[in-house]
Specification:
about 150 residues; about 15% helix; single chain; eight-stranded mixed sheet; alpha+beta
Length: about 150
């Protein structure tokens, strides 16, 4: 291998490592969050957009943060929505915050599915906290036009 090829290979390797490191830092610059429906509003099977309030789960000295785009998973019986919030805060005082209002847009109508906070599945960060009472179900279909719980 020529010295020129060795240098080019080393530069490529450093560039790939640098990009991976930046992506890791960007992903790590967030904290776990929970969400709930903003009140009052009516949801039904035709719902494709609704208002929610996103709250940081950990202690943050009152810093609300900025919700990142949610991860939305569409299943047969539920639509699971998981949020992260930036910046990442690993410690602080625990006075709580009011939460950040967001609008969630679904790619398809809700239908007969429940809305569930993804951080409330067993084994997740928030699972055993008060954020996940009722297993994180934020809406359960009942009758058409029923108010959100």
């Amino acid at each position: 291998m020529s010295p020129r090829s060795a240098v080019a290979g080393a530069v490529l390797l450093l560039t790939v490592a640098s990009v991976a490191s930046c992506a890791e830092k960007k992903q790590d610059d967030s904290s776990v969050a929970s969400w709930d429906l903003q009140r009052p509003q009516r949801l039904d099977g035709t719902t494709t957009e609704f208002a929610a309030v996103v709250t940081r789960i950990g202690c943050s000295s009152g810093v609300e943060g900025t919700p990142q785009e949610p991860k939305i998973e569409y299943g047969d019986t539920e639509v699971t929505i998981t949020f992260r919030i930036s910046p990442r805060i690993d410690d602080g005082t625990c006075q709580g915050t009011a939460g950040v209002p967001v609008t969630i847009e679904l790619d398809e109508p809700l239908g007969d599915r429940s809305l569930v906070d993804g951080e409330c599945h067993p084994g997740s960060t928030a699972w055993a906290t008060t954020f996940c009472e009722d297993d994180g179900v934020r809406y359960r279909p009942t009758s058409a036009g029923a108010p959100a719980p």
